[in-house]
């Protein structure tokens, strides 16, 4: 609540709804990286808006997770530049290596693979987002190293 109140202090009292996106990020970060219905209802209460107004935003953007996810979410960009540079092969390779399909979590709860739209780093294709950071110019060798670093707890997910 301290962080949420700090965020809300940047908005006029009657425009709290404008803080919805950053508040959802804060809540998600503080709750194992996903948003339950109860959490979204609490956000609606805090912002003084209807729960449906929170649901419609949380279900629209892929950065909000509506179910528990793997600790390390590999979000591969699947838009044109990354596709042309081999994203689909890399996703297949990653899924095969981890023994999961797209959107599934590994049995140990560590990994999940997801396809997302352009992340604005087209010049570094193929790329993915992992936590708050981008992994760029991906190759199978880089994927191997990233997975090993995750398993060794060497990957930092958040920049704050
Ligand atoms: S197409 Fe992949 S980051 Fe833009």
UniProtKB/TrEMBL annotation:
SUPFAM superfamilies: Thioredoxin-like. The keyword Metal-binding applies. It holds the Pfam family 2Fe-2S_thioredx. Binds 1 [2Fe-2S] cluster. InterPro entries: NuoE-like, NuoE_dom, NuoE_N, Thioredoxin-like_sf. Gene3D superfamilies: Glutaredoxin, NADH-quinone oxidoreductase subunit E. Its cofactor is [2Fe-2S] cluster. Keywords: 2Fe-2S, Iron, Iron-sulfur, Metal-binding. It comes from the Bacteria. GO terms for molecular function: 2 iron, 2 sulfur cluster binding; metal ion binding; NADH dehydrogenase activity. [2Fe-2S] cluster binds at residues 77, 82, 118, 122. Belongs to the complex I 24 kDa subunit family. NCBIfam families: nuoE_fam. PANTHER family: NADH DEHYDROGENASE [UBIQUINONE] FLAVOPROTEIN 2, MITOCHONDRIAL, NADH DEHYDROGENASE UBIQUINONE FLAVOPROTEIN 2, MITOCHONDRIAL. This is NADH dehydrogenase subunit E. The lineage of its organism: Bacteria, Pseudomonadati, Bacteroidota, Flavobacteriia, Flavobacteriales. The gene is nuoE.
């Amino acid at each position: 609540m301290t962080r949420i109140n700090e965020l809300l202090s940047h908005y006029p009292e009657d425009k709290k709804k404008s803080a919805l996106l950053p508040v959802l990020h804060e809540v998600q970060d503080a709750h194992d990286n996903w948003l339950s219905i109860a959490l979204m209802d609490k956000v609606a209460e805090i912002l003084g808006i209807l729960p449906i107004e929170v649901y419609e935003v949380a279900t629209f953007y892929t950065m909000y997770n509506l179910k528990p996810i793997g600790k390390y979410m590999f979000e591969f960009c699947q838009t044109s530049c990354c596709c042309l540079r081999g994203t689909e092969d890399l996703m297949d390779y990653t899924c095969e290596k981890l023994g999961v399909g797209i959107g599934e979590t590994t049995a140990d709860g560590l990994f999940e693979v997801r396809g997302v739209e352009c992340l604005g780093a087209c010049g570094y294709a193929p790329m993915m987002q992992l936590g708050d950071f981008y992994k760029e110019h991906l190759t199978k060798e880089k994927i191997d190293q990233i997975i090993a670093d995750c398993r060794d707890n060497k990957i930092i997910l958040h920049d704050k």
